[in-house]
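Need the bound structure for coenzyme A, inputs here:
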Amino acid sequence: MTNAPSSPISLPEVDLPALTVRLMTPADGPAIRKLDERAFGPGRYTRTAYRLREGVAPDYALSCVANIGSMLIGANVMTPISIGETSALLLGPLTVEPAFRSRGIGEALAQHSLTLARQAGHQLVVLVGDEPYYAKLGFKSSPQGRLQMPGPVDPARVLYCELQAGAFEGITGSVTRVS
Ligand SMILES: CC(C)(COP(=O)(O)OP(=O)(O)OC[C@H]1O[C@@H](n2cnc3c(N)ncnc32)[C@H](O)[C@@H]1OP(=O)(O)O)[C@@H](O)C(=O)NCCC(=O)NCCS
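Answer from helper R.:
Posting the output first, comments after.
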């Protein structure tokens, strides 16, 4: 599997022959912002997860975009964070253009980022999202009180995924932005 941005990765499990997934680059920023604006609206800047990403560049070795030809139709951002003294990753926003949803593109984008993160030796990924969607990617609800987010959040939506067995054992503390 090639991960260079110039070498798109085909995803045979998604039934869209023209679809490619590749690593995100800074040049994708404007198209991703438009996609997120349509999906989340202006309120996205007040979301607690946004506070963890504010002013922090995505990890471009782990963040992915989906294209049909030159059109960007999906994106998943991976951002470095800290949990107390422990390094971790924040997954999201994960967004797919409405016309292309329910074809497995969201799952493929997130799965690809998680595979790259595991290969790079990362241990733990956290997100704020719906457990019924993310369970298929290996995410579980964090026990209440284990992770303190930097703003209001429904505790049931704070999820974690261990990339290495046992990585969440003993982990507790404030989830903070990496400066
Ligand atoms: C969530 C999202 C990325 C999924 O993209 P996608 O390409 O449609 O995802 P997949 O094809 O892998 O999975 C689709 C399935 O997940 C379900 N699903 C979507 N969002 C869900 C949610 N929040 N909770 C539970 N199930 C959900 C869909 O109903 C669909 O089910 P179906 O296959 O039975 O029709 C997309 O719906 C989206 O961009 N939503 C708006 C942004 C958002 O809420 N992002 C997640 C928060 S970070």
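Comments: Residues 105-119 form the longest helix (15 residues). The chain has one domain: 9-177.
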